[in-house]
Amino acid sequence: MRRHGRLIRGIQWAIVLFYAVLVVLPAFLPLPDDEARILDNLSLFAQFLFWGIWWPFVLLSMVLVGRVWCGVFCPEGALSEAVSRHGRGRGIPRWVRWGGWPCTAFVITTVYGQLVSVYQYPQAALLVLGGSTVAAVAVGYMYGRGKRVWCRHLCPVSGVFGLLARLAPLHFRVDRARWEARTGGIVALPNCAPLIDIRRMEGGSACHMCGRCSGQRDAVSLALRAPGLEIAVNGQRAATGWDTALLLFGLIGVAMGAFHWSASPWFVTLRVAAADWLIEHGGLWMLADNAPWWLLTHYPQNHDSFSWLDGALITGYILGTALLVGGALYALCVAATRGLGRPAARHHLALAYVPLGGCGVFLGLSMTTLTLLRHEGLALPWVDAARAALLAGAVGWSLWLAWRSSAAHSASLPRRLAALLTIAVGAALIAGGWGLLFFVW
């Protein structure tokens, strides 16, 4: 990868062009009618590629090969880095380096995407994806010199990718002793675009897997490891409160609420009750569906428009789900670590839920894939069994990580078993939440 940097850059720019065409052009075409098909309508084709193939399998790639997507394929990263070489080159301000941006940006982007129906309409996709790209270019122009400041600190999915990459069996391993000994290899420091201190790198959470540091001082090499080892072994040193917040309240809680609300009978009941109350108390303006499309979904030609009440309820439902689910999971992590006699280990044990968080979002995004394929007339009788198998596998992986992680905090078998059972309650809660969506509603 280090030797073929020019080829990688060529791939990046080809993807930038492909990305631009599929994001921009459909937004200026008429909305597809009921007879349109994926292969004869550019809007449906772009929708299928972005939300049916692109994003679900980008998430899967993080679990399999780490953040290769970020370092080799991501159009926003390539643009931000390229622009930063010719930009103003300012130092990175403190507000950009705030550790809460990955969590905050993920929550805001997810909620806003639901309000404008980003999965369904090309105009909304251009607004969300194109807006993110413009922001990445602007940050690249202002800050850093040949660096990916946007990717490191502000990208809405960077934090999620960092969590999932901890599961990957493939990573760049750094031999610290050999690095310090300076015995050979390439000595000139490479341009590490995501701003990593390569010498001290212990895992793949922040590494973009671009290969630029491969062979550095004969101390950096591509290597295999047990899946999830970075969580079980390094998690006690690397886990932070923001990781916990992003995982429990964002990747699990917000995502569950975002995919739930459109199918939830609870949401329907709440909406009817709220509408009746507004009618009785003179709040009819909340029932109007006159918001612009860039604020709330407004496509009357498709009989699809959100009222102001819908917007408030969708936001409340997603954030309420996040608080309830995330709060319950956090309480269980605290209880488990108190049982271990190490309350400070709650962030480490919380990382055990990463497989379930990733699985839930993958299955949620794949709903678009399956909906479009069924619209094409494809019968998919195996879907429910596959979903159940993936959820069961994620539960097992999470419990295995919790068991391995508990060993770093206690040698007592009863204490570790009690902690495992507590974490298992949370795993059942997550699997049950997705089970409602896929098998009950």
Task: Tell me the series of helices and strands, N- to C-terminal.
Answer: HHHHHHHHEHEHHHEEHHHHH
Q: What is the percentage of strand-forming residues? A: under 5%
Number of helices: 17
Indicate the mean pLDDT: 93
Q: Give a quick account of the main beta sheet: strands, pairing sense, barrel closure.
A: 2 strands, antiparallel
> Segments where pLDDT lies below 50 for 5+ residues?
none
Characterization of this structure:
- By secondary structure, the chain is mostly helical.
- Helix content is 62%, strand content 3%.
- The protein contains 17 helices and four strands.
- The protein has helices spanning 5-24, 42-65, 68-73, 75-84, 101-115, 122-142, 149-154, 158-165, 176-181, 229-238, 241-260, 265-280, 308-340, 346-350, 354-375, 383-406, 413-440, and strands at 170-174, 220-224, 298-299, 304-305.
- A two-stranded antiparallel sheet has the order 1-2.
- Strand 3 (298-299) and strand 4 form a beta hairpin.
- Helix 5 runs parallel beside helix 11 (241-260).
- The radius of gyration is 23 Å and the shape is globular.
- The chain starts with a helix and ends with a helix.
